[in-house]
Every structure is written in structure tokens, then in C-alpha cells.
Amino acid sequence: MKLIVIGSSGAGKSTFSRQLGELLQIPIYHLDLYFWQPGWVQTPHDEWVEFNQQLVQKEEWIIDGYYGRTLDIRLQAADVIVFFDLSPWVTTYRVIKRRIQYHGKTRPDLNEGCPESLDWPFIKLGWNYRRDKRPSIMNKLSEHSDHAKIVIIKSPKEAKSFLDKVKDAGARVFEDLEPFPAK
Q1: Strand-pair category, 28-30 with 80-84
Q2: How would you write the pLDDT of the chain (183 residues) with one tens digit per residue?
Q3: Are 16 and 129 in contact (CB under 8 A)?
Q4: Are 45 and 69 a contacting pair, CB within 8 Å?
Q5: Which of 39, 106, 38, 29 is nearest to 70 (CA)?
Q6: Residue 104: which residues within 8 A CB-CB, separation 6 or more?
Q7: Residue 183 burial by Cβ neighbours in a 10 Å radius (0-12, 13-18, 19+)
């Protein structure tokens, strides 16, 4: 099985992916860990594209992260797409909480040398994610719904409920998903 988990910063993608990977016994790839080099240096574009192309060739995976410029590579290869469509109030609160929790430390889903940080442009990016990114994400979900199952998580409670279903039924949960509505 090949799953991607996308959504804004603070949506809970990494935690959800980690828990889902444990339940399904599927390897997890947190894109932040591979994209950001120590000192918050970005991986060069061509190298990043090649990394994504090689990653999706693996037999099974859960890939956590949005990274819009290479999103289509992952969408085309995915069997399941999980989109965290949470309120900006929730995601902003979580980003600030995470900043406090990991003050001066590196999160488990990031490279060493990338301590947790927070600035106004990052907060604005997360706050406006639904307005700025959601329309194109919904279009992409429609485009890929013929080959991939779509899960949209709208609240932390829905995320927990979905993980509980996976805990009870395993991968069969994905077979029972309703078709994603066309445009």
C-alpha cells in the first residue's frame, strides 16, 4: 500500500503518519526530514525531484508532507491520499504549541541542525493554507480519485476515529471508503 498524508503545518500529519505506519506496519517517510538539511538549507530542486521519483518506486510507504512542486509525483503513485483539512485555529494553535514544546530542539521528523523556529511569514502561510492551497488540492484529489482512495480529515477527533477504525479493521478500512465526489 502507498499512502500520502498532506495538509498544512500543524495539522497533525507526522503524528498521524507515525501512528498509521505502526498500525499497518508500513515504512514512513517524513518529507521534512529529507528536504531540510542542517541549518534549514533546502535540498536543490533537481535532487528533490529525483528523490521523490525514487521514493515512490518503493513497494509500500506512507509519505508525510505537502511540498507542492513535487506533489504530483506522489499523487500519481498513491493508492490512498489523506488530506488534513483542519481549521486554521487548530493548526495555528498546534504550530505555536510545537514551537514551545521543541524550543531549542529538533523535532523527530526533522534533521538535526534544524531546531524548531517560528516567524510571522510561517504563521501566515499556515493560517492562509485553506484559502490559498485547498482549492487546488481539491481539484487534484478529483483528478486522482480514479486510482486512489481519498480520505479527508476535518478535525482531530476524525483523525483519532480513523486510526481507531484502522486499529480494528487494518487495511480493509480503505476498501470501504466512499468514492470521492467528482468536481
Answers
A1: unpaired
A2: 999 999 998 899 999 999 999 999 999 999 988 998 888 888 999 999 999 999 999 999 999 999 889 999 999 999 999 999 999 999 888 877 767 776 666 566 766 776 667 777 778 888 899 999 999 999 999 999 999 999 999 999 999 999 999 999 888 888 888 777 644
A3: no
A4: yes
A5: 29
A6: 115, 116
A7: exposed
**How many Å apart are CA 57 and CA 87, to the nearest integer?**
33
At 109, list the grid cell. Answer: 521528523
Tell me if residue 3 falls in helix, strand or coil: strand
Find how far residue 150's CA is from the centre of its chain: 13
> Based on C-alpha coordinates, what's the Rg of the chain?
16
